[in-house]
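ARCHIVE CARD
CATEGORY: sequence design from structure
SOURCE FIELD: tokenized fold
FIELD CONTENT:
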């Protein structure tokens, strides 16, 4: 046994000590090696990589300290979410003609990444909406159906305000989801008929990255390599739309292709390909035809992906939006922010019918 451990066994003739001394010497070494072995076993049990020295194990600096926060970043970002006409449940929750709503999943999506929400109620007076815009560090356009009337006009004005703020040096991100993608495409292309019909309602899909795309600086930059691969092989994003834009039509519109770069495409139920993710070349504007918020926060439809990888997608997309908002130089009065936060409203449970949104904030 001893020979196996150390690879050497001294004989009596080679040793100046008595047999008893040799035996004692041998057993002392065995005991010593057992102690050393137990010590390293305990280290391995505590940490699977014993060669890595944890900060608490370092003797170079015994006084704990915290890394200073970056003074250029805003660690209390606020995102404005534009409300959508209706109650989100075809009148089952509120039939008020002036009702608008924000699905709670968008609020949770933003909050999960470390930001708060101020609702931008689309049919409030424009001066009120602009006042709220002065309190936020970014904007989110949600999904829905409204593509004309007051809703479109307000979205267009918010988009122009976003351009003005960025041009003035304030980092001010804008996210568009589903309808938000479509509205932005209509505004930027200067063509309200830019959209094409697609059969992509209530389905999970993959995302296919376009050839030679550079994801540096985009929403996908932070995705780990394995998750980028999963996006192209597994149906872990949720699609729910009847309109979209083909890559060909997108490329042929000079205004649209000058403003956005295509990141991904997807295919509908008839295998027709449409643009599914875009990011602006020169502005912090990102738009998805799919729904990054639903994987983690909506349960009304069985086809919504809820795998671990699908949840990771939600988390990474939310983190990117809020990381961009932290770059905003806007520091509004704290009390003004508090007075307008979504916390001043209560969500309504709308999922009893087993479909639609689980929760919605309704504004009347």
């Amino acid at each position: 046994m001893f020979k196996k451990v150390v690879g050497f066994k001294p004989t009596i003739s080679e040793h100046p000590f008595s047999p008893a001394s040799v035996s004692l010497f041998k057993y002392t070494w065995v005991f010593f090696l057992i102690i050393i072995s137990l010590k390293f076993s305990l280290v391995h049990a505590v940490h699977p990589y014993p060669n890595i020295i944890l900060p608490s194990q370092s003797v170079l600096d015994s006084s704990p300290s915290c890394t200073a926060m970056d003074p250029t970043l805003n660690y209390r970002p606020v995102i404005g979410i534009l409300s959508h006409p209706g109650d989100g449940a075809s009148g089952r929750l509120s039939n008020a003609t002036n009702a608008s709503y924000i699905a709670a999943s968008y609020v949770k999506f933003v909050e999960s990444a470390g930001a708060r929400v101020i609702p931008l109620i689309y049919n409030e007076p424009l001066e009120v909406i602009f006042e709220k815009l002065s309190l936020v560090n970014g904007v989110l356009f949600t999904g829905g159906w409204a593509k004309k009337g007051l809703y479109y006009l307000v979205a267009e004005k918010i988009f122009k305000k976003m351009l003005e703020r960025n041009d003035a040096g304030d980092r001010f991100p804008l996210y568009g989801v589903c309808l938000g993608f479509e509205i932005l495409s209509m505004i930027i292309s200067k063509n309200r008929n830019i959209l094409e019909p697609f059969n992509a309602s209530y389905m999970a899909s993959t995302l296919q990255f376009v050839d030679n795309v550079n994801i540096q600086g985009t929403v996908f930059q932070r995705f780990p390599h394995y998750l980028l691969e999963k996006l192209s092989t597994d149906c872990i994003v949720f699609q729910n739309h009847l309109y979209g834009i083909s890559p060909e039509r997108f490329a042929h519109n000079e205004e649209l292709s000058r403003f956005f770069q295509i990141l991904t495409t997807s295919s509908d139920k008839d295998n027709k390909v449409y643009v599914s993710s875009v990011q602006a070349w020169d502005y912090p504007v990102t738009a998805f035809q799919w729904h990054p918020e639903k994987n983690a926060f909506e349960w009304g439809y069985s086809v919504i992906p809820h795998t671990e990888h699908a949840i990771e997608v939600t988390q990474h997309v939310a983190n990117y939006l809020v990381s961009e908002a932290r770059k905003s130089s806007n520091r509004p009065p704290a009390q003004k922010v508090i007075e307008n936060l979504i916390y001043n409203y209560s969500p309504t449970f709308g999922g009893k019918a087993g479909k639609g949104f689980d929760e919605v904030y309704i504004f009347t």
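CARD ANNOTATION: The first strand starts at residue 78 and ends at 82. The chain has two domains: 1-65, 78-359.
SHELF: design records, drawer C
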